[in-house]
Write a structure and sequence with these properties.
Number of strands: 29
Helix content: 25-40%
Largest sheet: 11 strands, mixed
Number of helices: 23
Strand order of the largest sheet: 3-2-1-4-5-14-13-12-8-6-7
Strand content: 15-25%
Length: about 775
């Protein structure tokens, strides 16, 4: 939501200083933050401004001032003007960095983000303050979506009529054009979309007031000569070669126009702050004026850029900023052109967009043209079907796999915390454990744990009767110590690991510990996706004949089998092709080709999606040194699954990218990934924790089609872009929340293709609707 910032200047002067109040809040709401500070006396600011202004007025450009005051000399003082502008900028910003003003600056930086859309309103009666080029404040320049406007401390709200115009009604007054070209202004106005422009060229006073009274105007535009008088207290416009008048002389006609819906006055003429001050007394919502005399070409270019942006859908403040900044291209000929345009705002009013100027109630839209319901339904159905077919086809070819997996990871990370799995205990070997073993003279022999430490560890663990021990450490060589050899052979609840052959790397794998029989072995292989992330759980596979690792079951599956068998639960396979692993009443349905966001799942092996436990720590964890050198609570080991593995990042790194982190510093040790896999199986069987599954491809297509259909309905219901964009945003958020909730329940439905079909159908139907309405 857009932010509203108000800077209120109290009584004061540049000789005495100013009290300043900063208010920050959401648009259309009361300020949520308010702080008061001071700006110190700085009389030299007015001196620097006066010097710059004098240099600017000597440039000799064709200004839209009173025709009698137009400069005719051609003295080049461009360089002087640039230098004085630079000095004024530096002195101005130095003043705004005063110590007494610092709390306001810091509060601004604390509450506002550089990406925020911000309307800044400066409230002050001091004309010298209003004359300053506030847009060059270094704080404002940090915020690309911020623009500042001037305001009087006194204001009142004028309620907009309930029935807007069907088009944007613009009253364009073309005044005395002596020495300037107003034809360019008229040409730009005539190109405005959905606008009814009425031109009044060099009118008499009565002719102008009659026009102001005669119609409900949205925008009042003036091009010609104007000037400010009486210390910017009044402004004068020149209607023709003989007539001129002040705003007060149009008071009643202007007041009537404002009450009937006038939202914006644009004075594309010189020295307009006096005009703005008088118009502010009539409580007009917004005024755009030039704070100094404006060269003819600058006025024309600003109007062109502003109307392109504003009529193109930009908010008014953003349209002014874009148009003002584009004037920089003229500053080689017209120094400080970007300093000239300024908004004067009634703080009680929220600027309308171009579309909102003509917003018609829904019931009026439907009756502007008879609607053929049969034709509409057919068009919506065909559009949604066409989009669904294209999106589903691209998805089948893998076009969205990377984006789908990223959305899957985001949802996985966003799940509520489940807490640790109390059935597991992790014994980890970190860099300190490796150093301690070497310090004690123990030989590691190419692995992360010495025979002495491993023997002590197994003895201590078996003393407290764990249900299963998983040794997630490669030992493809025989034990040298007889005690360890005996431990490995006789520990019936110990599961060792080996690695299957890798055809892509042309290796035969890694052999298991020779002492551990085949029935107590599990392969350690992980399956990662193309981006290197482990999202799948390989339960079993048929090993290659030449593989050094012949066990058909994974390390995590073997540990789960061992734990569940102690509870009387034995594994079996369901009938059918392919068979699925079943434990008690829980069936672990293997992935098939084109499952979820995947394309081409290998049929060899039982793969399921890995439903990581949503917890900061999967299980209680203790280091090797801590377990060997300290007393242990028997309940921390008894009847648990103990996994032993490496978390060191030095000699034996075993880290994997997961949905919880892809970068090296965020990756997960292999033993912890194994713990998630073990926990997934036993939690599904014993706790009913959902396994992740996907629905059939046909149901996925119907799901995608449903969101495409919703997109078509939204596009047909709303014609105004802001409302349509809001509806699409809300629908996309609801879609994400549904997918997230279903994922927590164990069902992975496609988010990215569904969101894309929603947006694509909105686009297609909007285009078709535009063509239909133009017929």
């Amino acid at each position: 939501m857009a932010k509203l910032v108000v800077l209120k200047f109290g009584d004061g002067s540049f000789e005495q200083g100013f009290t300043v109040t900063l208010q920050i809040g959401e648009e259309s709401d009361r300020p949520s933050t308010e702080i008061t500070g001071k700006l110190p006396p700085c009389p030299e600011i007015t001196v620097y401004y006066t010097r710059w202004q004098a240099s600017y007025l000597q440039l000799g450009n064709s200004y839209r001032l009173d025709a009698d005051r137009i400069q005719v000399t051609n003295v080049s003082v461009t360089q002087d003007c640039h230098e004085l502008a630079h000095i004024l900028r530096a002195r101005f910003n130095a003043w705004l960095q005063a110590e007494d003003f610092r709390p306001l600056r810091e509060k601004w930086l604390e509450k506002l983000m550089p990406t925020d859309e911000i309307r800044v309103i400066l409230q002050s009666e001091n004309s010298q303050l209003q004359r300053l080029p506030w847009h060059i404040w270094d704080l404002l320049e940090r915020y690309p979506k911020a623009e500042i406007a001037l305001s009087s401390p006194s204001y009142d709200r004028v309620h907009k009529p309930p029935n807007p115009n069907a088009t944007v009604n613009i009253l364009a007054i073309v005044g005395n054009s002596q020495g300037i070209d107003t034809q360019a202004d008229q040409a730009v106005l005539q190109k405005c979309p959905h606008a009814d422009v009425s031109f009044v060229v060099e009118p008499r006073r009565k002719e102008l007031t009659d026009h102001l009274w005669g119609k409900n105007w949205d925008i009042l535009f003036f091009a010609g000569h104007s000037s400010s008088q009486g210390n910017d207290s009044t402004g004068r416009i020149y209607l023709n070669k003989t007539d001129s008048l002040t705003i007060s002389e149009l008071k009643y006609a202007l007041k009537q126009a404002i009450e009937r819906g006038l939202q914006l006055a644009i004075f594309n003429s010189c020295d307009g702050l006096g005009l703005a001050r008088e118009l502010a007394d009539l409580h007009i919502p917004q005024i755009i004026v030039m704070r100094e005399p404006v060269p003819d070409q600058v006025a024309q270019e600003f109007l062109k850029y502003f109307l392109q942006s504003f009529a193109g859908g930009e908010p008014l403040y953003q349209a002014v900023r874009h148009a003002r900044e584009r004037l920089q291209g003229l500053e080689d000929k017209f120094p400080c052109a970007t300093w000239l345009p300024v908004i004067c705002q009634n703080p009680s009013q929220i600027p309308l967009t171009w579309d909102e100027l003509t917003e018609i109630p829904t019931q009026q839209i439907f009756y502007t043209r008879p609607v053929d319901k049969k034709r509409t339904c057919k068009m919506l159905a065909l559009s949604s079907l066409a989009v669904t077919a294209v999106v589903s086809g691209l998805r089948l070819l893998g076009g969205f796999q990377a984006l789908e997996l990223q959305a899957f990871d985001l949802m996985m990370r966003s799940r509520p915390d489940e807490g640790t799995d109390r059935r597991l205990l992790l014994v980890t070997i970190d860099d300190d454990d490796l150093a301690n073993q070497r310090r004690n003279g123990e030989i590691l022999k190419g692995t992360s744990i010495s025979e002495k430490s491993l023997n002590q560890l197994l003895l201590k663990l078996n003393k407290y009767q764990p249900k299963a021990i998983g040794l997630d450490i490669y030992r493809d060589f025989p034990a040298e110590q007889a005690d360890l050899k005996l431990q490995l052979q006789q520990t019936d609840n110990l599961i060792g690991i080996c690695k299957g052959s890798d055809s892509t790397a042309n290796t035969k794998g890694i052999a298991p510990p020779p002492e551990i029989p085949k029935e107590r072995l599990g392969f350690s292989d992980f399956i990662h996706d193309k981006d290197g992330v482990v999202r799948r759980h390989l339960l079993f596979m048929t090993q290659e004949t030449a593989s050094l690792c012949s066990t058909p079951y994974s390390f995590s599956t073997q540990l789960a089998f061992l734990y569940l068998s102690s509870l009387g639960i034995q594994p079996k396979f369901t009938p059918g092709t392919p068979p699925n692993l079943q434990l008690d009443k829980t069936v672990l349905h293997r992935l098939s080709p084109h499952s979820g966001g995947y394309q081409g799942i290998d049929a060899n092996g039982g793969q399921i999606l890995l439903n990581y436990r949503a917890s900061k720590q999967i299980a209680e964890q203790v280091t090797l040194t801590q377990l060997l050198s300290n007393p242990i609570n028997p309940n921390a080991i008894k009847d648990r699954i103990v996994l032993i593995g490496v978390v060191a990042k030095g000699d034996f790194p075993d880290y994997w990218a997961t949905p919880y982190g892809h970068l090296l510093d965020e990756q997960m040790p292999g033993v912890i990934v194994q713990a998630h896999m073990v926990s997934q199986i036993i939690s599904a069987v014993l706790d009913g924790r959902p396994l992740l599954r996907v629905v059939s491809p046909w149901l996925e297509i119907i799901w995608i089609w449903g969101w495409a259909g919703l997109g078509g309905l939204l596009a047909w219901q709303w014609r105004l872009f802001p409302k349509l964009a809001l509806a699409v945003g809300v629908s996309s958020s609801v879609l994400y929340l549904l997918c997230w909730s279903l994922l927590i329940s164990g069902v992975w439905l496609p988010f990215v293709p569904s969101a894309l079909s929603l947006v694509a159908t909105v686009t297609v139907v909007s285009i078709q609707k535009s063509k239909f309405n133009s017929q």
